[in-house]
């Protein structure tokens, strides 16, 4: 897939993996519609991408809101050569057992990790199918299939997101759709795990501090570069699959 002069939507673009992806995609020549909830941080990323030569539209808003997603798709169409989306935005709220988690946190997990995936697909897919295809990438997590104290609802919503991606791949083979699991990355979410409170806090703190102490964390830039290389090569070979960063890293 040639990324140059293609337009991609990227959610969660203001920090961490999203920020790194925005910069790597801009370096590869893509134009971008970036979304995050922090206007100031998002604006800084957008400016950095523009400095690399990309055309950029920055949309500060909640990706789980219908109006925000419609606006993103319209902006991508205006930029031209709309080629798809990467749904990187996520929330965590780790630490509490399922029975301890406040309902507001439950609702936010469902909204950002699942509802936003549905909305992006609902509004992007018809446009992509009309123009001959594109890509839909969902940032997944090993938590989708690993039960661990204090991450139950996060894992459940990521499992649902990954299921949705496989369903989209089945229903619309004309759009290359896959899940990308970055593994353990040195981000604010990892830091949250290392300081988790609640019933599952002690187990999470032990596990995730261990990754840091053993030097097992990847950088956002590493996992972003690997995904952009994949997209620049032949992403259709991964249609309907779960792509692990660790597997890409092992390839020569």
From TrEMBL:
Keywords: Oxidoreductase. CDD domains: SDR_c (cd05233). PANTHER family: DEHYDROGENASE/REDUCTASE SDR FAMILY MEMBER 7B, DEHYDROGENASE_REDUCTASE SDR FAMILY MEMBER 7B. Residues 6-185 form the Ketoreductase domain. It is an enzyme of class 1 (oxidoreductase). Pfam families: adh_short. It comes from Meiothermus hypogaeus. SUPFAM superfamilies: NAD(P)-binding Rossmann-fold domains. The lineage of its organism: Bacteria, Thermotogati, Deinococcota, Deinococci, Thermales. Belongs to the short-chain dehydrogenases/reductases (SDR) family. This is 4-formylbenzenesulfonate dehydrogenase TsaC1/TsaC2. The keyword Cell membrane does not apply. GO terms for molecular function: 4-formylbenzenesulfonate dehydrogenase activity. The gene is tsaC1. Its EC number is 1.2.1.62. Gene3D superfamilies: NAD(P)-binding Rossmann-like Domain. InterPro entries: KR_dom, NAD(P)-bd_dom_sf, SDR_fam.
């Amino acid at each position: 897939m040639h990324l140059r002069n293609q337009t991609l939507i990227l959610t969660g673009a203001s920090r961490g993996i999203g920020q790194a992806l925005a910069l790597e995609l801009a370096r590869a020549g893509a134009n971008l519609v970036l979304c995050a909830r922090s206007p100031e941080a998002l604006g800084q990323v957008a400016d950095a991408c523009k400095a690399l030569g990309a055309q950029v539209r920055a949309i500060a808003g909640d990706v789980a809101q219908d109006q925000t997603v419609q606006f993103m798709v319209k902006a991508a169409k205006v930029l031209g050569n709309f080629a798809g989306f990467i749904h990187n935005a996520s929330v965590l709220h780790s630490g509490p057992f399922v029975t301890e988690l406040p309902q507001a946190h439950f609702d936010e997990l469902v909204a950002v990790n699942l509802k936003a995936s549905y909305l992006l697909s609902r509004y992007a897919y018809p446009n992509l199918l009309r123009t001959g295809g594109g890509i839909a990438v969902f940032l997944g997590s090993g938590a989708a299939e690993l039960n661990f104290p204090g991450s139950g609802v996060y894992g459940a919503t990521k499992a649902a997101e990954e299921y949705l991606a496989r369903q989209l791949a089945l229903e619309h083979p004309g759009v290359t759709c896959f899940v990308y699991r970055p593994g353990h990355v040195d981000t604010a979410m990892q830091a949250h795990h290392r300081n988790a409170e609640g019933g599952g806090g002690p187990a999470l703190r032990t596990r995730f501090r261990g990754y840091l102490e053993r030097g097992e964390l990847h950088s956002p830039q590493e996992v972003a570069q690997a995904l952009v290389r994949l997209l620049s090569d032949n992403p259709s070979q991964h249609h309907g699959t779960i792509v692990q960063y660790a597997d890409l890293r092992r390839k020569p």
